[in-house]
């Protein structure tokens, strides 16, 4: 019973370890996919936001330039056009710098998230290795318990067979002894009957002076019985 309980506990532990490994794998895959989706979504959001800001800033600058052109169209047309070009170039440079800064920031943030995900992945891999090792150890222990149980069952069967064989031998020996005892009992009874008849005949034939008295006959009777009893009886 203890071995069966140990086997059941080992099986339950193995099933739990397998479920934990599957859950960790699914969690790891979902976490990586979530991080990728977040990085892509943030990058697209920043690009769209920057493009919108550039467009708004450009429109604003153009409106200002138009107002300046309307006010000084005749007097400073060339200067305004040149200024607009310089400002537009400066705006583009500024926006280019802002875009580069945002890209660097986004890349740094994404790199940090990927590094964190890599570290978490390494931890999960180590956890998976540990779970695999525990599962292998549990399987080995279960196999060892099964071998021990099989050996014990085999020894029990051998002991039962040996006990049955000994019981049969003892029963046969007992029957043999009982048969021998019954045979010797019959022989002794027959010899005692013959001895009594012979002694009675001798007493009848002998003179009166040679006949045993009752007390003397009782005293010598054990000697006669002992001489008639075989040595090997009841051995």
TrEMBL record:
Residues 7-79, 107-194 form a coiled coil. It comes from the Eukaryota. Keywords: Coiled coil. It comes from Toxoplasma gondii RUB. This is Uncharacterized protein.
């Amino acid at each position: 019973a203890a071995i069966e309980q140990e086997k059941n506990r080992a099986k339950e532990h193995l099933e739990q370890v397998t479920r934990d490994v599957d859950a960790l794998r699914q969690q790891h895959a979902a976490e990586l996919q979530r991080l990728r989706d977040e990085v892509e979504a943030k990058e697209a959001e920043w690009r769209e936001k920057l493009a919108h800001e550039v467009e708004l800033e450009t429109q604003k600058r153009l409106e200002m330039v138009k107002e300046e052109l309307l006010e000084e169209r005749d007097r400073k047309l060339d200067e305004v056009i040149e200024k607009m070009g310089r400002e537009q170039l400066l705006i583009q440079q500024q926006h280019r710098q802002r875009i580069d800064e945002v890209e660097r920031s986004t890349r740094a943030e994404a790199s940090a998230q990927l590094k964190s995900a890599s570290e978490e992945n390494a931890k999960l891999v180590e956890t998976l290795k540990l779970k695999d090792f525990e599962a292998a150890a549990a399987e080995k222990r279960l196999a060892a318990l099964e071998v021990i149980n099989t050996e014990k069952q085999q020894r029990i069967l051998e002991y039962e067979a040996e006990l049955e064989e000994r019981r049969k031998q003892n029963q046969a020996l007992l029957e043999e002894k009982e048969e021998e005892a019954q045979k010797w009992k019959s022989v002794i009874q027959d010899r005692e009957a013959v001895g009594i008849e012979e002694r009675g005949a001798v007493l009848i034939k002998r003179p009166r002076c040679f006949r045993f008295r009752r007390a003397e006959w009782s005293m010598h009777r054990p000697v006669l019985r002992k001489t008639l009893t075989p040595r090997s009886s009841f051995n």
